Amino acid sequence: MSELYEQWLDLRSDTVTHPGAAMREAMHAAPLGDDVYGDDPSVNRLQDYAAELFGFEAVLFAPSGTQSNLIGLLVHCGRGDEYLVGQEAHTFRYEAGGAAVLGSIQPQPIANQADGSLALADIAAQIKPDDFHFARSKLLALENTIGGRVLGADYLAQATALAHGRGLATHLDGARICNAAVKQGISLRAAVAGFDSVSVCLSKGLGAPVGSLLCGDKTFIAQAKRWRKMLGGGMRQAGGLAAAGMYALEHNVARLADDHANAAFLAQALAQIPGISVSTPQTNILYVDLPADACAGLNAALQAERIRVSMAPRLRLVTHLDATRADLRRLVDVFAAYFR
Ligand SMILES: *Cc1c(COP(=O)(O)O)cnc(C)c1O
């Protein structure tokens, strides 16, 4: 770990974590092979372990969550098909329009409710009849957690049953599904129940440097493998990265509760400061509403204390395994001094 990195507190995202000593040790020790030939024992071990953990027949290791989601959409939908997705969803908003650009898949965005869900009536209303005027409705894509909010198991059961009942498949962008499971005290299998495919990020909060897992049945994953190759995601001696992901799943899931507790601590402490308003975090993401004219000055004060955030009037702060309670107290002190 570089000294410079250690000195900074970075709350822009839970992607900023560096692999710790034990994870690096696991990466160093990983047996390797050529994964494009299916020969990398460490990749195979991760995929098998994750299939068991999430309750799917098969899993594919992908370089990023964006690619993993895109592969999922490409398997479920063809040219002229559409997928129903939240306006705020990562796949729709933050993945450069990949489904439309590379898959000729039309997104049908639906407004997210305040709790992050898509209203069942809105989903039902957007499923098109089989009529040549319309794109073919093929897939419902949900995200959990979404903006740090947890979609509960009851809602997910209803939404996926609705989609299946109307002949649609279901995909979960579960970049932060481990946060959702830990928060609810349910198994990862229970957290992804009802979905035909799930994408899970190993590099968000779980501490791996890169990597995502795409889960599905065997037929789905066989098709996914072709798309991954086409998208340039076939990696050779990827076992070192897979070993980091394996370490992350074995050691860094339960501890997400610490990140949730740290976010709650931060929200409570910042809420004492007059002039700003703070959301109550459900998991590891909180939002702070700031006076717009405070942003530049506050950002400078934070940087002077080696604290990095993505400054905005609606400031998102994300806790993670490299942000200690003591670090967070430093941030609270900067805020308190600035608004005094
Ligand atoms: C970060 C994120 C992704 C994409 O992951 P990358 O590995 O950054 O490509 C997908 N979905 C959600 C909800 C995310 O937060």
How would you portray this structure in words?
This protein has 340 residues and is α/β, with parallel strands linked by helices. The chain folds into 2 domains: 232 residues, Aspartate Aminotransferase, domain 2 (3-Layer(aba) Sandwich), CATH 3.40.640; 85 residues, Aspartate Aminotransferase, domain 1, CATH 3.90.1150.10. It contains 15 helices and 12 strands. The strands form 3 sheets. A 7-stranded mixed sheet has the order 2-8-7-6-5-3-4, with helices on both faces. Helix 2 packs across helix 12. The longest helix is centred in the last third of the chain and has 16 residues. The structure holds pyridoxal-5'-phosphate. Its cofactor is pyridoxal 5'-phosphate. One of its GO terms (molecular function) is lyase activity. Its EC number is 4.1.2.48.
In short:
This is Low-specificity L-threonine aldolase. The protein is an alpha/beta fold and 340 residues long. The protein contains 15 helices and twelve strands.
Instruction: Measure the end-to-end span.
Output: 35 Å
Main sheet: strands, sense, barrel: 7 strands, mixed
Bound molecules: pyridoxal-5'-phosphate
Spatial shape: globular
Could you name the key traits of this structure?
single chain; 340 residues; Aspartate Aminotransferase, domain 2; 2 domains; 7-stranded mixed β-sheet; 44% helix
Helix and strand arrangement:
Blueprint: H1 3-7, E1 9-10, H2 21-29, H3 41-54, E2 58-62, H4 65-76, E3 81-86, H5 90-93, H6 98-103, E4 106-110, H7 120-126, E5 136-143, H8 153-165, E6 169-174, H9 177-184, H10 188-191, E7 197-201, E8 212-216, H11 218-230, H12 239-251, H13 256-271, E9 277-278, E10 285-289, H14 295-304, E11 307-308, E12 314-318, H15 325-339
Parallel strand pairs: 1-11, 3-4, 3-5, 5-6, 6-7
Antiparallel strand pairs: 2-8, 7-8, 9-10, 10-12
Helix pairs in contact: 2-12, 3-12, 4-11, 13-15, 14-15
Cofactor: pyridoxal 5'-phosphate
Family: Belongs to the threonine aldolase family.
Enzyme class: lyase
